[in-house]
Structures are given as structure tokens and as C-alpha cells.
Amino acid sequence: MAATLASTFVNIFSSLNIPSNLPTFIQPFSTTPSLNFSSKLPKFDSKTPNSTQLREKQATAVATAAIMFPENPLLSDVCGFLVSAVIARTTLGLWELTAKFDVFDSKLNRKLVHISIGLVFMLCWPLFSSGYCGAFFACLVPGVNIIRVLLIGLGIYKDEATVKSMSRFGDYRELLKGPLYYASTITFACFFFWRTSPIGIAAICNLCAGDGLADIVGRRLGKDKLPYNENKSYAGTIAMAIAGFVASVGYMHYFSLFGFLQESWDMVLQFLVVSLISALVESLPISTQLDDNLTVPLASFLAGSLLF
């Protein structure tokens, strides 16, 4: 009976001629309202405040807006790859010029490349769509660099500017170690962890910002050496932990603006622990014997997998 009366009311309401010049807050949402007379009510999550729901909707809208063509994710990913590749190559080209004209000493220039490339690349991640399709096209950017590094390191292709900006002693074969590990780490973190996982963020930030600043600070302020490794200093290890942690928190906030992550104090604390572990591993003699571009990411991936 109630359903019949309600249906009659809807028919009467629909037949009314509502003036179109009424103020917006007086006009009904639709002249043909749709009522649900089923026994099931829409679900409402009482644990989520309306403000949180609103922030999530806004973040989703921002993430969609960052994509160039929301209606065509594949085209957006292709364009995102092109834009990211140009930005990455421009950044690398800048450091190649500074190396060519000896603006900085070779060690500092190499570390500036080390710090900037991965962090700048992560800034481009919102240009890609969600899921593995976006991750695949994004990881093509460092993936192309892996091929380039291999060609130069094997002597197949010559590029003195790249060798000078990335190697310690100007030997092209050095690119098969640190630079190759560096590019491989970023590619791996991009594809398997992408922008929704703090593990990948921690690994890249500790590798780029942390390890890069450790060397710069250690060479200038590292008079007091560690008792278990005379090649490492207290200043460099502390600088690495701080830089990796600050960069991780910064990118946590950056990706949360797009709705990729939900930032929290727990995550901040977890980033701190991962950065401390990465700094400790970097200070060990095994990192000197192998390569910190290999040991630091492995430590970050392992610690992050246990904590996050």
C-alpha cells in the first residue's frame, strides 16, 4: 500500500511544471526522481567522516586531472612516457654540460646526477594511469637508460659526456656497475611497487637523496671515521639517514595529494626506520666492497617489505 501511494505521489510530482528560473537551492534535482523501494539501503561507512570522503574524492579528481587524456589511458601513458623521457634527458644533459665545462669537480657532479635523476623522474609519475599499464610505460624511461648504459659500458656506443658525468675515473666500463644498478633499481621499484607503495618510494629516496648526500657531506665534513669502516664517516652516515628520510616523507605527501597514498604518522615512523637501516647498511664494509647502489636498495626493499 505504501509503495502504491509513493508511486502515485511520484507521478503527480513529475507532471508538475517547475519554473526554470527558480534559484538553484529551490529547484529539485530532477523532474523525474527515482526512488528505491527495495528492502536494501545504500551502504554507508560510519567509520569514515564526511571530510575524509570529500578529501578522497578531491584526491581522485586531482589524480585524474594530472593524466593528459583521462578518457584514453593508453594515449595518456604514451604521452607521459614522452614527457618524462624528455625531462629526464634534459636533466641528465644539464649535468653533462656542467661536467664538460668543469663547473663542479667530477665527484660532486656525479653525485648531483645521482641525486636528481631518480627524484625528478618520480615527480612525473602522476602523468601515468593507474595499474600495471601506467607502471609499464613509466618504467620504460629508466629502462631505456639501462640499454644506453649497457651499450656505453660494453664499448658498443661512445658517449664521453655521459662517461664523464657518471664514472669515478673516466672509465666507460664503470657504467656496468653503479650506474647500471642505479637505473635497474629505479626500474624495478617503478614497475613492482609503483606509486601506491611506500616501499618503492623509500628505496628510491634512500638511493638518490640519501646515498647522494652521504658522499657529498662525508667528503666535506667527515673527519671522524666510523670504527668499523675507515672509508665512512659519522657525518656522511647521519646525512644519509636524514636526507633519505626527509625525501621519503616529502614524496609521501606529494603522492597523497593525488590520492595514491594515505599519509600518516605511522608511515612517517616507518620511513625513518627504513632510512636508518639503509644508512647503516651503506656504512658497512660490504657496501664498499660491492656497491652501495646495490646494497642500499636491497636493504630498503627488505626493510620496507617487513615494515609497511
Shape: globular
**Measured distance between first and last alpha carbons:** 55 Å
Instruction: Give a short account of the largest sheet.
Output: 2 strands, antiparallel
The SSE string, one letter per element, is: HHHHHHHHEEHHHH
Number of helices: 12
Oligomer: single chain
- Biggest sheet strand line-up: 1-2
Low-pLDDT runs of 5+ residues are 1-6, 18-49
The overall pLDDT, averaged over residues, is 82
Total strand segments? 2
Level of helix content? 55-70%
List keywords for this structure.
mainly alpha, two-stranded antiparallel ribbon, 12 helices, 2 strands
Question: Can you describe this structure?
Answer:
There is one protein chain. A hairpin with a 2-residue loop joins strand 1 (225-226) and strand 2. The N and C termini lie far apart (55 Å). Strands 1-2 form a two-stranded antiparallel sheet. Helix content is 68%, strand content 2%. With 308 residues, the protein is mostly helical. The longest helix has 28 residues, at 73-100.
Which SSEs are present, and which pair or pack?
Layout: H1 2-15, H2 50-66, H3 73-100, H4 106-123, H5 131-153, H6 160-166, H7 178-192, H8 198-221, E1 225-226, E2 229-233, H9 234-256, H10 265-283, H11 285-289, H12 292-307
Antiparallel strand pairs: 1-2
Helix pairs in contact: 3-4, 3-5, 3-6, 4-8, 5-7, 7-8, 7-12, 8-9, 8-10, 8-12, 9-10, 10-12
What is the structure about, briefly put?
The chain has helices spanning 2-15, 50-66, 73-100, 106-123, 131-153, 160-166, 178-192, 198-221, 234-256, 265-283, 285-289, 292-307, and strands at 225-226, 229-233.
